[in-house]
Design brief:
The chain is an alpha+beta fold. Among the domains are: 2-135, no CATH class; 629-787, no CATH class. A hairpin with a 3-residue loop joins strand 4 and strand 5 (278-285). Residues 1-50, 60-89, 129-133 and 627-631 have low confidence and may be disordered.
Length: 789
C-alpha cells in the first residue's frame, strides 16, 4: 500500500518490500555517516522507512540536486554554499564520493536479495519525489508573461516528478506506437492495420496535449507525405479535439470578464469546435450580433512550458541522432510563439494589424479577418464577430483554386511586405465566405520577420521562380541555411547540381510525392561524406516552414499537381514590378535578364518576361476577386484597370526600376528599328560604281559616318528585332487571355477611347517619360559610336 503525504509517495510498514529491507542483518547495513549530512533534504519526519533507507533516500535526493536536472555550475554553487558554506569544488567531489557509496549500498542490498530491486526502485522514486515536495519558489514557468527558457528550467527543476513523468509518458507513447508498427511490418499486416494505427496515432497525439496536437494538425493536410488513412485520422485534430466542460468555460469567462455569462451572451450552450488551446462557442450578444467566443483551456500554460523544456533538454540527444540545425533555437522560437498565443488580447491585436496592412495592398477586397469585440475580450477569452463560411479544403465552389492563390498571395504579403505573418493556417482556419472572400481565423500565432530578411527572401524566391538555381546556394548561405564554415562547399558545382535537381522536381508540382526521396537522400549523403553537413534549419524558419507546408497541403488536396514554388510567382511578379527598393530592383534585373544582367548591351529574355507578365496578371486577377468576378466585369472596366496599372508602372515622375528597364529596351528597339529601316531604304536606292549606295552618297558624300556603324544595321540589331517580334507575340497572347482578341468594332472603339483618355489625363507624365526615352536612345547611340571607334 502507498500513502500520499504532500507530494511524496511513501511505502508503509504493511508493504512487503518494507519488511524485506527492514529485516535486521549486518549484510544490509550501510555506511550511515556520509548520509546523515544529507538527511535534512528529505521532508517529512514520519516517513515509514528504516533509518538506513532514509539516509539512502536523502543521499540520492542530494545527489540529484547536485548533479542532475540541468542546473548550471554557478547556480549550484550559490545553492550549495547556502546549505553548507563549503567550497563548490570540494563539495562537488565529496558529493560524488558519497553518491558512489550510496550506489554501493544499493548494489549490496540487491545482491543479497534480488526481490528487493523493486523496493530500491521505490526508494529512488521517493528521493526524486522528496526534491519535488519542497516548497517551490516559483508559481509560474514564465513570470514575465513571455517565453523564457531560463525561468522555465528553474520552475521544472523544482518539480522533477513533473519533468520525469512527462518525459516517460512521451517516451512510452512513442515506443508503444513504434513497436505496434514494427510488428505490423514483421507480420506483413501493415496495410491491414493501417487504419487502426492511424487512429492510434491520433489518440496518442490527443492525449499528449496541445504541443503534439499542433504537430498533428500540420501533418493532417500533407497528402504528399501521409497515406489517406493517416490523413483521415489526423484531420480530426483540426476541430474535433476533446472538449472541456462548459461549466469550466463559464467559470473562466466569469473570472476574466468579471460578470456572468448570461449578462453578456445569449445562446451560450455547447462548444461548436474544440482546438488544442481552447474551444469555440457560437453565441449572440445582447445587441443581436452573432459572435464566436473562444475560451482557453484551463491550466494549459504549464503543460506547454513543460513540453518546450523537455524538447530543449533533449536537444543534445537529438543532435547525436542526426537532427540538423539549432534545435534549442528552434524550440525557443516555437515556444515564444506558443506562449504569445495564450494571450487572446494579442490575438485580437494581430488580427487588426493584419487588416490594416492588407488594406494598403491590392488584396484588400478579397481577404478578411474577423472583427474583434474588445468589450468582451481578455487574456483567456476572445470574442469576434461570427463569419459565415465553409472550410476552404471542403468547399465545392468553382473558385476554390482562385482562393488558394489568394491565400498564397496573402501569406507572401504578410511574410515579405508587412513582416507580420500568420503561422497557423491549418484548414480549419481558412474559410470561404458566402461572398467568395478568404477569411483567415485564429491570429494567436504570428511571427515578425526582419526587413533585411524579407529582402533576402524576395531575392531567393525570384531566383527560384526564374529557375536561376545556380544562385540558390548563395541565397541559402545568406538566409542561414548553411552552417558556418560550409559557405564555399555548398557553392561547389556538385552541390549546386543537387540543389538544382531538388528544386526542378518541386517546380513540376505534386509536392514531396513527386520527389524520389531515396535518390535525393543518396545525393545528399554523398555531399555529406565529402563536405560534412551542408544544411541546417535556422530557428526563425520553423513557423514559416510550418505555414507554407500547410498551404502546400491545402493546395495539393485541391490539385494533385500543385507546385508551391510556381504559386509564389504571382506575388513575386507584382512585387518586382512595383517595388522601388534597390535590392528588389536587382532581383528584377536578374529575373528578366538572367546571367546577362550586367552587360551593357543586355537583351531581355522573352520567356522570362512572359513568366513575369503571367504572374502579374494572375496576381491582379486574384486581387480583383478571382476569375469568376473578373469574368463578370465589362471589357471596358478590365481595360481601364489594366491601363491604370500600366500607366502607374511606366508613367512615373521619379525613376523606377521597371520604367528604367522598359525605356532602356524600348530605346534599343527604336534604334535598331531606325537602323534597319535606313539600311533597307539605302540598299534599295541602288549602287554607284564606287560601291556606295546612291542614298548613302547623297546623305554622307564624304563618307564620314560610313565606318562608324551608327547608321548600319548589324547582328545585334537583328537579335533585338527578333526579340521584339517574340515580345509582340507574348503581348498578343496576353490580349487573347484577357479576351481582347475577340472584341467587336464597337468594343474596340471604346477601348481606344479609354486608352486615349488615360494618356491625355497623364499627358504631363507622358511627356516627361518621352523625354527620358529620347535621352536614353541618344545615350545608347553615343555608346555604340564610342565602342566602334
Amino acid at each position: 500500500m502507498v500513502h500520499v503525504q504532500g507530494s511524496c509517495f511513501l511505502p508503509t510498514p504493511s508493504h512487503s518490500c518494507y519488511h524485506r529491507l527492514h529485516a535486521p542483518t549486518n549484510r544490509h547495513s550501510l555506511c550511515l555517516k556520509p548520509f546523515k549530512r544529507a538527511r535534512h533534504l528529505v521532508l517529512g519526519s514520519s516517513m515509514a522507512l528504516p533509518p538506513e533507507l532514509q539516509a539512502l533516500s536523502g543521499q540520492v535526493c542530494k545527489y540529484v540536486d547536485c548533479q542532475g536536472l540541468g542546473k548550471s555550475i554557478q547556480d549550484q554553487q550559490r545553492m550549495l554554499s547556502k546549505l553548507s558554506g563549503s567550497d563548490w569544488a570540494s563539495l562537488s567531489k565529496q558529493m560524488q564520493q558519497e553518491a558512489a557509496a550510496a550506489v554501493d549500498g544499493v548494489v549490496k542490498v540487491v545482491e543479497a536479495n534480488p526481490a528487493a530491486f523493486l523496493s530500491v526502485g521505490a526508494v529512488l522514486l521517493l528521493s526524486v519525489a522528496a526534491v519535488a515536495s519542497r516548497r517551490p519558489s516559483m508559481t509560474t514557468p514564465y513570470p514575465s508573461g513571455v517565453y523564457d527558457k531560463d525561468t522555465a528550467a528553474e520552475y521544472f527543476r523544482e518539480r522533477p516528478v513533473l519533468f520525469f513523468s512527462r518525459g516517460a509518458q512521451i517516451a512510452m507513447a512513442a515506443l508503444g506506437f513504434g513497436v505496434s508498427v514494427g510488428l505490423d511490418l514483421l507480420m506483413n499486416k501493415y496495410e491491414e492495420n493501417e487504419g487502426k494505427r492511424a487512429d492510434q496515432a491520433t489518440t496518442i497525439l490527443t492525449e499528449l496535449g496541445p504541443t503534439f496536437i499542433k504537430i498533428g494538425q500540420s501533418l493532417s493536410i500533407r497528402s504528399d507525405l501521409l497515406s489517406p488513412e493517416y490523413l483521415r485520422a489526423l484531420t480530426q485534430l483540426q476541430d474535433k479535439v476533446p472538449e472541456f466542460s462548459t461549466e469550466t468555460a463559464i467559470e473562466i469567462i466569469k473570472g476574466e470578464l468579471g460578470r456572468d455569462v448570461s449578462s453578456v451572451y445569449d445562446n451560450f450552450d455547447r462548444p461548436i469546435a474544440a482546438a488544442s488551446l481552447g474551444q469555440v462557442y457560437r453565441a449572440r450578444l445582447k445587441d443581436g450580433r452573432e459572435v464566436a467566443v473562444k475560451v482557453q483551456r484551463p491550466n494549459i500554460l504549464e503543460r506547454i512550458a513543460l513540453d518546450m523544456h523537455l524538447i530543449r533538454e533533449s536537444a543534445p540527444l537529438l543532435k547525436k541522432l542526426g537532427a540538423p540545425g539549432d534545435i534549442e533555437g528552434l524550440v525557443d522560437d516555437w515556444g515564444f510563439g506558443f506562449v504569445n498565443e495564450l494571450d487572446y488580447r494579442k490575438e485580437g491585436e494581430n488580427a487588426e494589424a493584419f487588416m490594416e496592412s492588407i488594406s494598403k495592398t491590392p488584396l484588400a477586397k478579397v481577404v478578411i479577418a474577423p472583427p474583434v469585440v474588445w468589450e468582451f475580450t481578455s487574456t483567456r477569452v476572445l470574442t469576434t464577430e461570427w463569419i459565415v463560411g465553409e472550410r476552404l479544403e471542403q468547399s465545392s465552389a468553382s473558385d476554390v483554386s482562385s482562393l488558394c492563390s489568394i491565400a498564397m498571395n496573402s501569406y507572401l504579403t504578410m511574410m515579405l511586405e508587412s513582416g507580420t505573418m500568420h503561422c497557423d493556417p491549418h484548414p480549419g482556419n481558412l474559410l470561404r465566405t458566402q461572398d467568395g472572400k478568404l477569411c483567415i481565423l485564429d491570429w494567436g500565432l504570428v511571427q515578425t520577420i526582419d526587413p533585411d530578411l524579407r529582402l533576402k527572401f524576395i531575392e531567393h524566391i525570384a531566383h527560384l521562380t526564374s529557375r536561376d538555381y545556380d544562385k540558390v546556394p548563395a541565397d541559402l548561405v545568406a538566409l542561414g541555411f548553411v552552417p558556418a564554415g560550409k559557405e564555399k562547399s555548398v557553392q561547389e558545382e556538385e552541390s549546386v547540381k543537387v540543389v538544382a535537381g531538388v528544386y526542378t522536381r518541386l517546380m513540376a508540382g505534386g509536392g514531396a510525392a513527386n520527389i524520389d526521396v531515396n535518390a535525393v537522400f543518396s545525393e545528399l549523403q554523398d555531399l555529406t561524406e565529402k563536405y560534412g553537413n551542408l544544411f541546417q534549419i535556422p530557428p526563425y524558419f520553423a513557423y514559416i516552414a510550418r505555414a507554407f507546408g500547410v498551404l502546400e497541403g491545402i493546395g495539393l488536396s485541391n490539385n494533385p499537381k500543385y507546385a508551391i514554388i510556381s504559386e509564389c510567382l504571382p506575388y513575386i511578379s507584382q512585387r518586382l514590378l512595383t517595388d522601388t527598393n534597390p535590392r528588389t530592383a536587382g532581383a528584377l534585373n536578374t529575373f528578366i535578364f538572367g546571367a546577362d544582367k550586367d552587360k551593357e548591351d543586355r537583351l531581355l529574355d522573352v520567356e522570362r518576361v512572359e513568366w513575369l507578365l503571367d504572374g502579374y496578371s494572375s496576381y491582379q486577377t486574384a486581387a480583383g476577386g478571382g476569375s469568376l468576378v473578373s469574368a463578370a466585369k465589362p471589357i471596358t472596366t478590365v481595360v481601364e484597370e489594366a491601363a491604370e496599372q500600366l500607366s502607374s508602372l511606366l508613367l512615373t515622375e521619379d525613376d523606377s526600376p521597371v520604367q528604367a528597364i522598359v525605356l532602356e529596351q524600348l530605346a534599343r528597339i527604336l534604334n535598331a528599328g531606325v537602323r534597319g529601316t535606313w539600311t533597307a531604304i539605302r540598299n534599295s536606292s541602288g549602287k554607284m560604281r564606287n560601291g556606295r549606295t546612291l542614298l548613302g552618297m547623297l546623305v554622307d558624300p564624304l563618307g564620314i559616318f560610313r565606318g562608324t556603324g551608327i547608321f548600319t544595321s548589324d547582328e545585334d540589331d537583328r537579335r533585338v528585332m527578333e526579340a521584339t517580334q517574340r515580345l509582340l507575340e507574348v503581348v498578343q497572347r496576353q490580349s487573347v487571355r484577357e479576351s481582347m482578341g475577340s472584341l467587336r468594332p464597337q468594343e474596340l472603339r471604346a477601348v481606344a477611347a479609354i486608352v486615349v483618355r488615360k494618356l491625355w489625363d497623364k499627358r504631363a507624365k507622358l511627356l516627361l517619360t518621352s523625354n527620358k526615352l529620347a535621352s536614353t536612345a541618344l545615350r545608347q547611340s553615343l555608346q555604340r559610336l564610342e565602342r566602334r571607334r
